[in-house]
Structures are given as structure tokens and as C-alpha cells.
Design goal:
Helices cover about 25% and strands about 30% of the residues. It has about 200 residues and is α+β, with helices and mostly antiparallel strands. Strands 1-3-2-6-5-8 form a six-stranded mixed sheet, covered by helices on one side. The protein is globular and about 45 Å long. The two termini are about 20 Å apart.
Length: about 200
């Protein structure tokens, strides 16, 4: 996912987002955030709005490939639902992210609302080359804190997929997978993705 930019509190007022951004940053509440009607992808962190920049074409191709493969697997087994952003995921009170790919088990359907998911069972992020730390460190820490059982970090620059599983309050490595290997899941037994095909998808 591409790194976020916080909205200035001095918006021009010409769009709904800009008008609402005249509220002092740090003082937004969840109700105001969820009521936003905008074509911007926005995350929410303790009263601050964070605009997610537009992703690249190769980024979106990888995301589409991953969600299609994951959806086929989980739908055929009635395991749950896989979706892509824009989809808000509440990590905890006052904290929302929009992972590139989100999966929720069917048994956790009570954690899905029309506006957002309450947590998730598996998330995937395609690393932004502009700010690697956002996906590899910040979100790794946040998703672990939120208790999300599995996190995939898909790194196009390094041609590597890192699969992390929750161990206590932090993630442990299940595996680092490169072209010629299958990236596998701990949560979804039998789910595997050909790494070479993932990165080939970026070319269209």
C-alpha cells in the first residue's frame, strides 16, 4: 500500500473533503470519518485523516491477481470473503486502515458492517517503493497489535513475499518466498500462490 499523507487542516473548501478538513487535525471522530463522501482513499488515525496516494498500474495488477486467487480458494470451500480496498478495517477504536487485500472468515461474519470490517483474519499489502517502512514496519506493528492472525507483505522491488503469522503480540516469519516457490498460508491450509505468477501479473 502506498504511504499516507496527512490532510492539512487548512483545506480550500471546494470539495466535501476539503471543506471537512477545515476541522483541526487531531479532532476528527470516527463518526465524522465514516460519514466522509469522497473519491479519495482515506485512513484514520486517532483524529487525523491520512490520504492514501493513487497506486501504480503494476501495484493494482498484483492486488487484483492476489484477490482473484484468494477468492477462488475461499469461495470454493465456503471459508469466508476476500475483498480489496477501498474497504475500511477498524484495527481498534480510533484506528482504521485500508489494506490492499482483506480476508474475513465466514465464522466472523458478525465483524462485518456495511461501512467497515472490525479487524480481519488475513491482510495483504503490496509494498510502496516510496516508503517501505510503512508496510514493513508500521503496518506490521499495527496489524499485530490488532490481533490479525496473518499478514502477507508482497514486495515487488525485491520479488519476495513475506508471510507472517501472529505469535503472541507480534508476528513471526512463516516464510520468505521468491520466484520458483509457492507462498503458503498458515491460516488457510492448502492455500498457495506461485510467486513468479504474482510478479508476472504486474506486467499485464
Amino acid at each position: 500500500m502506498y504511504a499516507n499523507t496527512r490532510i492539512s487542516a487548512t483545506g480550500g473548501g471546494r470539495t466535501d473533503l476539503e471543506h471537512r478538513a477545515t476541522l483541526a487535525q487531531g479532532h476528527w471522530d470516527e463518526e465524522e470519518y465514516l460519514a466522509l463522501d469522497t473519491n479519495h482513499l482515506i485512513e484514520f488515525s486517532h483524529g487525523h485523516l491520512e490520504v492514501v496516494p493513487m497506486p501504480t498500474l503494476s501495484h493494482q495488477r498484483i492486488v487484483l491477481f492476489l484477490v482473484q486467487v484468494l477468492s477462488r480458494f475461499v469461495k470454493s470451500r465456503r471459508l469466508g470473503e476476500a475483498l480489496t480496498s477501498p474497504l475500511r478495517v477498524q484495527l481498534w477504536s480510533g484506528k482504521f486502515r485500508e489494506p490492499d487485500v482483506v480476508f474475513m472468515l465466514a465464522s466472523h461474519r458478525d465483524r462485518k458492517t456495511e461501512q467497515y470490517f472490525i479487524g480481519a483474519d488475513l491482510v495483504m499489502e503490496v509494498v510502496s517503493p516510496k516508503d517501505r517502512r510503512h508496510d514493513t514496519e508500521t503496518k506490521r506493528r499495527e496489524y499485530a497489535q490488532a490481533g490479525i492472525p496473518e499478514y502477507w507483505i508482497v514486495d515487488q522491488e525485491r520479488a519476495e513475499i513475506l508471510v507472517l503469522m501472529l505469535a503472541g503480540d507480534r508476528y513471526a516469519e512463516h516464510g520468505r518466498f521468491t520466484p520458483g516457490q509457492q507462498a503458503t498460508s498458515v491460516l488457510l491450509q492448502g492455500f498457495a500462490v506461485d510467486v513468479a505468477e504474482v510478479f508476472a501479473a504486474a506486467e499485464g
